[in-house]
Amino acid sequence: MKHFSIVAMAFLVVGLVGCNQASAGGSFNQQARLDSLEKDFKVVKEEFEIIKYALDKRGISLEQARAEMEADNKVWDIPDEDSPVFGNTKDPKLTIVEFTEFQCPYCSRIAPTMKELNNKYPDKIKFVYKHFPLSFHANAQAAAAASIAAHKQGKFWEFRYALAPHSRELSDSMYIAVAKEVGLDIEKFKKDMVLDSAMMARIDKDFQLGVKVGVQGTPNFYINGKRQDRFSPDLVEKLLKEAK
Question: How far apart are the C-alpha atoms of 109 and 114, rounded to whole Å?
Fold first, then answer.
């Protein structure tokens, strides 16, 4: 209700200014500007009513919407740490951080797009992979552990893209088959992929970082620290052109 009172106050100010100018012999042009201002306030009030209606249908308040907007506009400092990194690590025009997992079907579908971007812009973009296994995906953590084992042999990205099409077939035998496909030392891989407490802590570190920066699902992308809800190759192209 306080926002309606602000609008009402604005109308009151218009009225007072109009009275003062009239008493001082204000010109016709001044009155026209005041009439235009009053019209603008009417438009603002109508638009506010529409926004409030839309928010009510979503079941959120204006304050919650403001918090969402602030979160979307916030620029986060997301450290690489021991995450897999690909591309220009020294002076990239863009840094794309991807919070994702292997059982998510949407993550599987976008993996080829990410591979194309990897291949197209290795000199302009730094790509960072962060694990964000969702709790209702029973195989997501084990798949993350397998990819970390591949990372220890320097072949995370090869493993990631080879495993991506198999989001519905995740199992130890699948991880081993993919490891053979990308040329890993299988015995070392089997030892390193064990989902023990240390491995779970490594995965959870990424997950908690994601929670901190506002990840709400997978995949979530951050470009130069800013969350992008509508990530696409076209957006990447646009930001590359705008980058200095």
Answer: 10
